Amino acid sequence: MFKLTAAPALSSGDYQRPDLSVQLLPNLARLSLAPLHGELEPVQNYLEKLTIKLPGPTAATLSPCLVLPLGQGQWLLQGELPDLAPLKEKVATTDQSDAWCGFTLKGIKVPAMLERLVMNPPSTYAEGCAVRTQIEHLGCWVVGLGSCEWQILGPRSSADSLFHALKQTAQAVDALTDN
Amino acid sequence: MKSRRVSSGRISSTPVHFTFDGKSYIGYEGDTLASALLANDQLLLGRSFKYHRPRGLITLGSEEPNALVTLGTGAKQTPNTRATTQELFEGLNAVSQNRFPSLKFDFLSVNDRLSRFLTAGFYYKTFMWPKSFWESVYEPLIRRAAGLGRLSEIEDQDEYDKGFLHCDLLVIGGGEAGLEEALRAAEQGQSVVLCEEGPRLGGMALFESSPIDRIEVLVAKLQGLSNVRIMTRTTVQGAYDHGVYSAVTQNTEHLAKPRENTPRQTLWRIYSGSAVLASGAHERMIAFDNNDRPGIMLSSALRGYLNYYGVLAGESCVVFGSHDDARKTAADLHAAGAKVVWVDTRETHEKIEGVESYTNARVVDTRGRHRLAQVQVEQQGRRFWISCQALGVAGGWNPRVQLTCHQGGRPKWSSEVGGFVPGVNLPPGMRVVGAAAGDGLTGNWKPVWDLSVTGPAFVDQQNDVSVKDIKLAHQEGYVSVEHLKRYTTLGMATDQGKNANALGIGVLSQHSGKSIEDVGTTLFRPPYTPVAIGALAGRSRGKQFKPTRLTPSHAFAEQQGASFVTVGNWLRAAYFPLASEKHWRESVDREALAVRNAVGVCDVTTLGKIDVQGRDAAQFLNLVYANGFLKLPVGKTRYGLMLREDGVVFDDGTAARLSENHFVVTTTTANAVSVYRHMEFVHQCLAPQLDVHLISTTESWAQFAIAGPKSRELLQRIVDLDISNEAFGFMACAETQLLDGTKARLFRISFSGELAYELAVPTRFGNSLMETLLEVGADLGAVPYGTEALGVLRIEKGHAAGNELDGRTTALNLGLNQMVAQSKDSIGRVLASREAMVQSTLRLVGFKSEEQILTGSWLIPQGQPSDQAHALGWVSSACYSPNLGCYIGIGFIEQADQHMNQKVRAVSLLDNIDREVNVVSPHFIDPEGERLRV
């Protein structure tokens, strides 16, 4: 009897230096959520009871799970997902766990990295903010988690290319600050 | 009497060793290559472009036209490096350019003697005869002679970066005016980016003899502010729309051994709220005979090398000018102990004690071969020679207005300043301050342009354009300054006219009798200084030119030795060659036969998948598809035809109804993004009242086609679902799971025309599923198949794909007109009914031949000329059919009924092919669709 095994988005995605690290996120549960017409308020109320706020454009909710505004009336949840069974008739949900790959960037040198990768102003990815942008032609999210930590979400199929871009830029920033 | 270092100036006293043309020298930290060579009495630095005349430096900075050298070797070789801006580093190795065999002795200096034949535009009048020589003799010769430096032709191995900066104020130029602007804005709370081309802030003040305390105070204040970003070695290259500027930072050009992974340069895109141009000004030459000898330079350069680098260019110096600025040079040289003669074209000037001076006088000629030896002065009809080693020329000042032109603004002439100053149409948000605006440049300037007698008197030293060339161009009718530029190449070299433009315009004005305002000026365009192609490419080169998308089974395919093909950004397996197979056709034929006779597995993840949910999901699909979806039962899939608004076919795919309000739509790989975008547009803009929500799930699900008569048998070993024909008929769909509990979706759809399914699992299980299907199906003869066999199978079946949905074809052309429902509204329905559309007789047909049919061939009737007027249609897809044992194709032909079972010619004029093909039905295999429904 067969048993399928799960493969990660990337066999290895790690860059560790003092003041700058890039690490592949483990596979996290992700879900897109869109309240049906007229159901936004009940959905918001239900989630707020669980301390989950549906953020507006450019904002991000950081806990208890990450919530990003995907589009008009649509959000992406990541991490410890809430129980949405009570909202079954009120929301459209789609599993997005395998759609994205994620990287955590940590360290005081990360802003120098991000200004080489992200064309948006740094204020758009400050703590509690999220911006959907392009990194080396890849559509990505950049999320400010605070305390010199950011998260980047990109398309899973391009995990290799995205990590390559992140690692090259990290190496460049390290080299420039050490010369 | 040599050029030598008389003090440390404002640079370090740490020695630095370097070579030039194989000879070793010592300079100091803070030197440029030019200042270090000058200090070592090496004045001869290059040979001019056309006449190969000996040349030396004339400026202090990036406007230098003559002192161009090649640095480095091999992949590091960088031609046309300006010695005046190249910072010295330990071990620097530079060679001169444009000379053979050596700088001192250059064979092509004979061109100088032939100069009367090599005037402006000579190549328009020569190289005419014989015609046979154009490509075989003249072009190779001219190409060899063209250009100054040489590329190594080895790929540049350096890394280049890009970056994005945002600020309230961009200050361009780190001189006193720029520093003050930056500080004022920063103290008001604005975020400021300050870009300075050189390694140090201070601008021209650094090169004067007066103290620089004020500069140091400004710099210290700016360095202490967190809202100021100071970027030295950064040249702002261009002004673009909406306050966007480009800038290039040189990261490693000054380093002997940069750390590994350091990008050589960084190209910045700077988004600014506003900008201040404080780029200063540079001095200008005067045209007199032989004004280009090594040792002749701008007056400000002569004193700059003394004050900043501590280099006195000669024990005896002449300063010649028409401007007060010459006095500063004369005074500084005299204070340094040089014997100075000051020649002034003006009637009076304020004398300097100890300096011999001549007013109402001018320099009219010079002598010296590899370095200046004498200058000839004319005063009130009397001429006399003065021996000297250096001549500084102060012909007036050119404000650096280049960036003000980049949005179409035109500089205007200021007779007070004696130069072109910024015009009225500046890039939005830009102000100009300091010398760049003409401030402080008046200096009692007297217009003096052309003092030539017999020549040559050079205007553009880099392109060897002389006064004679300008006169000739004017004489030949090139009276517009734009024509003057192109005909003579004045201003077209790497310095882009920084030294030559204003002087050339002045000379033209003098000889044409027109005012300078009437002569006008050409415009400057980005970049301000040469930019390496690598900097523009950044990281987008080689494999990283564009990102790659890997299918979930990529690891498996690589392990199998698959041959890959790029499909957009995707890397897909084209075929899986066995070790015994030597030609791709062997692999593809084998795979296609295996699918028809047993079972094959193909990764079709790349096709777009869109999740459509909501109470109005079915109504929404009814709107975006030409055919109906309202009544599609749950658990069924339907082929969907999507039209553009103009009625032309946009895409095709399937929509599977998983539940009452939940559909999964598929698209072609190529249109995954555009269909999703289109659907979102319809959702948000055309039908916002519909309660429907869309999200792409292309990445989320790994999807595999399992096709062939044994596909059911294989799948029954995998899925936990009754997939008998009765329980799971043709076009059925279901959310299910595999026997190991992995969640899955199953669709009974076929692209190949065989009994077939598509099985989807979450992407992370994709590779494992591919391996499992082939392992479990080994006894059934299961094989992996790639995009080539996929293509053969669908052509055999007669399925239209991207080649047929080419943006011109309609449902009628494709034989799918009955799918455009007239009883409901849908995107494209109305315009698909236009007269021209419904009257088209173009139809999809098939072709058969014993000879290869070429995709793209035009269809021409027998006995007719092969031209557009006689073309009946074209072949859109073609292949060899291993199942039929012949070549087949599908395409479009006018009056299909009349041509059915007839012969036409498939013609490719590009490939010189003209073959007979039989016109047949496009459905070569199982036209009744019986295999699909078993």
Could you describe the 3D structure shown?
The complex is a heterodimer of chains A (179) and B (934). Chain A is an alpha+beta fold. Chain A contains three helices and ten strands; from the N terminus they run βββαββββαβββα. Chain A has a six-stranded antiparallel β-sheet with strand order 1-2-7-10-9-8, covered by helices on one side. A four-stranded antiparallel β-sheet of chain A has the order 4-5-3-6, with no helix packed on it. In chain A, a hairpin with a 4-residue loop joins β9 and β10. In chain A, α2 crosses α3. Chain B is an alpha+beta fold and 934 residues long. Chain B folds into six domains: 123 residues, 2Fe-2S iron-sulphur cluster binding domain, sarcosine oxidase, alpha subunit, N-terminal domain (Ubiquitin-like (UB roll)); 184 residues, FAD/NAD(P)-binding domain (3-Layer(bba) Sandwich), CATH 3.50.50; 110 residues, 3-Layer(bba) Sandwich (FAD/NAD(P)-binding domain); 159 residues, Probable tRNA modification gtpase trme, domain 1 (Gyrase A, domain 2), CATH 3.30.1360.120; 90 residues, Aminomethyltransferase beta-barrel domains (Alpha-Beta Plaits, 2-Layer Sandwich), CATH 3.30.70; 94 residues, Aminomethyltransferase beta-barrel domains (Elongation Factor Tu (Ef-tu), domain 3, Beta Barrel). In chain B, α5 runs parallel beside α6, α7 packs parallel to α8 and α9 packs across α10. The longest helix of chain B has 15 residues. Chain B is elongated. The termini of chain B are far apart. Chains A and B meet through β6 and α3 of A and β9, β14, β31, β39 and α19 of B.
